[in-house]
Write a structure and sequence with these properties.
The complex is a heterodimer of chains A (113) and B (113).
Chain A lengths: L4 E3 L2 E4 L5 E6 L6 E8 L3 E9 L2 E5 L6 E5 L5 E5 L8 E8 L8 E2 L3 E5 L1
Parallel strand pairs in A: 2-11
Antiparallel strand pairs in A: 1-3, 3-8, 4-5, 4-9, 5-6, 7-8, 9-10, 9-11
Chain B lengths: L3 E4 L2 E5 L4 E7 L6 E7 L5 E8 L4 E3 L5 E5 L4 E6 L8 E6 L14 E6 L1
Parallel strand pairs in B: 2-10
Antiparallel strand pairs in B: 1-3, 3-8, 4-5, 4-9, 6-7, 7-8, 9-10
Classes of the chains: A mainly beta (113), B mainly beta (113).
Chain lengths: 113, 113
């Protein structure tokens, strides 16, 4: 069974640009969550999608958005990139239900210059 | 909502020594708790999960954790550290608001030869 796949693995963007990151969950997983990880802030929850609907959202500005498609694949978009957006972005998928395990992709390392 | 606190952002042990990573949970007894591990340049993977079925939980790579209600703790231990255990470890409470998984601050484990 294939794991969670995130593309691309590495990305370098210029301040002011926008970026789209992709996440393909494990087959059958309808919940997809996104996290931002930085040395100073640790793992911060961005948002969670379930059946194409955003179910939860973290405390991030509106420049951060996402969506989920009918096949459960998810994308997140960051517009007007800032230097502080440089981070590892992690995607996780899981089967719906209490106490189910979240499976993580390897992440996309975004560097904003 | 449940939350967890990890004591010590960085722990350093010698190879062969006991590993103890601390996690305390808040408020009421949770139905489950997680420990995840993140190796360098990787996503997170589940190390072990507590459910009410057993207070002593065994995980991968020789790790185990004991749920202690009297101490509101779920500390992670390993009798003998190996160099390959060097990683960041995250404790996590049950999902909040449906699918929002909020991690502890993380503890970076270093293993000295």
């Amino acid at each position: 069974k294939a794991g969670v796949t995130q593309t691309p693995r590495y990305l370098i963007k210029t301040r002011g640009q926008q970026v789209t990151l992709s996440c393909s969950p494990i087959s059958g997983h309808r919940s997809v969550s996104w996290y931002q990880q930085t040395p100073g802030q640790g793992l911060q929850f961005l948002f969670e999608y379930f059946s194409e609907t955003q179910r939860n959202k973290g405390n991030f500005p509106g420049r951060f958005s996402g969506r989920q498609f009918s096949n459960s694949r998810s994308e997140m978009n960051v517009s007007t990139l800032e230097l502080g957006d440089s981070a590892l972005y992690l995607c996780a998928s899981r089967v719906e239900g209490q106490g189910t395990e979240a499976f993580f992709g390897q992440g996309t390392r975004l560097t904003v210059v | 909502a449940q939350s967890v606190t990890q004591l010590g952002s960085h722990v350093s042990v010698s190879e062969g020594a006991l590993v103890l990573l601390r996690c305390n949970y808040s408020s009421s007894v949770p139905p489950y708790l997680f420990w995840y591990v993140q190796y360098p340049n990787q996503g997170l993977q589940l190390l072990l999960k507590y459910t009410s079925a057993a207070t002593l939980v065994k995980g991968i790579n020789g790790f185990e954790a004991e749920f202690k209600k009297s101490e509101t703790s779920f500390h992670l231990t390993k009798p003998s550290a190996h160099m390959s255990d060097a990683a960041e470890y995250f404790c996590a409470p049950p999902y909040n608001q449906g699918g929002k998984l909020i991690f502890g601050q993380g503890t970076e484990l270093s293993v000295k030869p």
